[in-house]
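Hi X.,

You mentioned you wanted examples for the new student's onboarding notes, showing what a folding record looks like when two proteins sit in one file. Here is a clean example. The first protein comes first, with its sequence line followed by its structure tokens.
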Amino acid sequence: MTGIKRALISVSDKTGVTELARALAGMGVEILSTGGTASALRAAGIAVTDVSKVTGFPEIMDGRVKTLHPAIHGGLLARRDRDSQAMAQHAIRPIDLAVINLYPFEATVAKPGCSREEAIENIDIGGPAMIRAAAKNHAFVAVVVDPADYAGILAELGSNAGALNEATRRRLARKAYAHTASYDAAIWRYLEDREGDGSLPERLPVGLHRQQELRYGENPHQRAALYRLPTAAPGTLLEARLHQGKPLSFNNLADADAALECAKALPVPACVIVKHANPCGVGLGGSSDPDVVPSLLRAYEKAYATDPESAFGGVIACNALVDGEFAATVVGRQFLEVIVAPEFSAEALAAFAAKPNLRVLATGPLPDAATPSLRLQQIEGGVLVQDKDVATVTHEQLRVVSRRQPTAQELNDALFAWSVIRFVKSNAIVFCHDGATLGIGAGQMSRVMSARIAAWKAAEAKLDIRGAAMASDAFFPFRDGIDAAATHGISVVIQPGGSMRDEEVIRAADEHGMAMLFTGLRHFRH
């Protein structure tokens, strides 16, 4: 490829553009530019040719039309080995380098109070057209969309007689198409959120941005990275501030997200301990005793007591400020990989500093856990898409199907258990009492086995489950699960209902003097 003689620079993000243009001009490259970019370069003393001078047509419609012209697109698309006659006939000069980034659509619509008109005016038209043209013609043209590439481009031009090699141009073209695809996905998402009919879309542009390369995936032989959705919101791990510790691993991120999602769904203050994607302990800071002042430390004590063995090396998520007393207790008691919370006091951060390998993440204010969104899960050759499971039930929505009515305490215990079960892998059974999980059985092929494991874990932790609530994420197909719970003194069962043998299951509850509640909702989690 011959050296770069002519470059078009038109950028919204002007990071490093003055230095780039000055270096190009020093190499004898002619620089074309538009609007604000041209003004910025001139102010820096760099010679610039306005695009309007090349096209012979002024910018019109408040800048909506300025680069959409054969003099520009012909220069970008011309094949140097076959289009010379057309170029000469229409006085089109080649453009060898296109440095372009787009109107900040995502930043614009993220601003509070952004109007629809403002959003629409920040949809770039000429920029994507030029990027795609240059990328298509990468055999002859280099396209640069990321300021992070400027230094490498200049270094290669300096060492390669003012030219960029084919591998570089191909890499830049791939990056350019990913850039415009993500941009279009963000626009689609904005319009879909405001004007969609509520159905799942026929096409689902995703627009992922790599935020962080990870050391490896679930296992050391697997490559991994963290990608960001255009809709990533505050109060998530992607926005969290890492106060101390190494960057999170693939497994750390998965566990921390599971813990944080559960914590968001619970009353404040609450604490969730997760190990291998499942809660091993969940606690609320309040008590059935009205004289007890709720505290996050009490929530942690309840969560830890559920399964101290599994809590070792786990992840903690809290939905309230972590203070020094809480931090000192955790540091003195257990080994921990990650702790995530909305904020930490100075005393808490000082206490955690004694464990420098502990990752401490502050998310800022947590969003409403009931905010609907889509969840994506990859399978071989495709992606499963579903609504986020945000369904909940209230006291009034529960249906008592047993002869015995539940007490007020049993109702509260059952609803807390039902809040937790949504975040436990199926088949799931959870025992709860007074804002604390007492036993959790997760991920078994048999619901009875999950119940046995939950009871065994409670016994291991020396927790009394007599009088506790039992939640099941799906219906009981047989009465054996109820019979097993009765042997441990479970007093109330909350479950979706809907089995062919519901009458048999209800009859078992009545025989054992249990209260039974149907939710009409299932909470499978795979």
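Then the second protein repeats the pattern, sequence line and then tokens:
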Amino acid sequence: MKYADLVIDNRSDQTDSLYTYGFDDHADDLNIKKGSKVYVDFGTGKNKREAYVFDIKDKPERQFKIIRLIDRADEHISLTEEMVRTCIWMKKRYLCRYIDAVRQFVPAGKPLKKGKRPSPFADETGEEQMIENLTEDQSRALSAVRSKDGHEIILLHGVTGSGKTELYMRVIEDCLKEGKSAVMLVPEISLTKQTIDRFIGRFGAERIAVLHSRLSKGERYDEWMRIRNNEADIVIGARSAVFAPVSNAGVFIMDEEHEGTYKSEKTPRYDTVEVAVKRAMDMDAKVILGSATPSAVSYQRSESGLYRRIEMNSRYNEVMLPSVSIVDMRRELKEGNRSAFSRELTQQMTKTLEEGKQVILFLNRRGYSSFVSCRDCGYVISCPECGISMTYHKSVGRCVCHYCGRSVPVPAVCPECGSRYIKFFGTGTEKIDEEVASLFPGHKAARLDMDTMRRKGSLEKILRDFGSGRTRILTGTQVVAKGLDFRNVGLTGIISADVSLNIPDYRSPERTFQLITQAAGRAGRGDERGKVIIQTFAPDNYAVTAAAKHDYKAFYRQEIQFRRMRGYPPFSDFIQIIIASSMEDTALAVANEWERVIRSHLGNDGKNVLPNTSMVSMAKDGYKRSILIKCPKGSRKKYFDILMQLKNSIKGDKRKYSVTVDVNPYSMWRS
């Protein structure tokens, strides 16, 4: 008889611990090892529960009156020992439950029915781009990557269009020659198709597996199996692909490493970079973080020596970076232009289209109007559940909450004062698309945002039409700024650089710089220099001026100085504790108790618990209250030990509330 410590598949804080079961290690039908998925009796229920083996021992750590036995093992699904170690690390790092970590590694679906194709991209031929000669920058960067064996973290800082993808593929070729696998991550599902086409053209569809949330559960299950059975040795996907069941990876690559989509906003609230580094260390693999606009945190780590930085400063086509013009929209307004389009942008769009080139318009705000308000009393239509102003969507004729998805009809009269002067304010991509159709009726236009991407296949069609040249003008949100590579784009127009600049978050200058730079990088990727027009009401802001000059280092110097003065990351960590309950009184009482006990345990550091009285009402999750803690550099373990003790010790009916811990949340302003 041997004994196994199991994690039970049960999403409850009360059962978030290891349970000891026995098994006959000589039984022919029980092949149990660390990581095995097994089935056991648990609690009073009659149905067998799924569980995962985290440790095997010859003797139990303590005496039990009765030891329950493992019923059977799953012959198809299991974790590797590295995955088990990563799950344990995630529980400590993100204060999540064991099972929350385990579920990231195992497929949720079942195999596809017989007769269905085994891979969603099995019939793809890909885009063949055989590049024999690298640029001087690419050759130097590739030599630098190859100069050191084993685990290390590389920050690949390359300007937009410098040929980072070709370098990624060369590094992956090296891994495959050594019999190792590779994981290639992109920040958006919308980018996987373009990446997949290029990789299939180079490596063939049979070697590539794809993991992302737009696949059906059956497709994800089958792709997971292909990776686990070593039938595919290149994994491509969005954030969740970092948990691919690879056992001998040579490299984890994260393209556009700065993107906020790499930070999970669902439990467990993991940071993809941290998970990739943890797994790579265990496999003695490299981590390559690529970006034209690295996060200030990553760049500071490269300055301090934690990451090795490799730079690529010129475009692969040797065409100069786009010329950039900043248009002061305050002046446009003074001179009577109330349109979302400055006169310069309209003129340049006309010229670009006449030359046979294409145009991308970027506005990081979807919908038609940003908010709906009463001109008499100032009342703003807000979500009755969230208290957040709703966006007007003309296509459906309703006001929509972008936080919870609730929609309401536009009122005929003001609910507050009864006035009929209900007006629409602000501009979204839907309105820009309408204005484009009016200004340029002879040119096919399209819109790319969350609203137009909902229907399956719509994203691929929009990009295919633009790539073929049928669509001349593409309007979109941040999706169009992330890595799209079209050679005929002559002009990028940034409708309003102020949308991200005015978000009340310490990262807003960084986001603004990144979005402008990335959007600008879509222009001039062919044989001719492109042009970018930035429209803004803050033309002197350092994020805007540095982006216009393509000067990352100038931006970084000012940004890191500001963060050092304020003690913001990377000089600290922010820890957000979110208390949620269906009852407002419970959420308040539990949050107040947590805040009191945390301050007490921290002693003199109690001042680092920041005042935060926000209460957000959510349609699905009830009431939420957040506590924000600034954790000085080097103190994370101390603070986490306190939080773990509290999570296990604070009394009360935990069925009435939940506690979530988020380390360095990417959207603090929303809570």
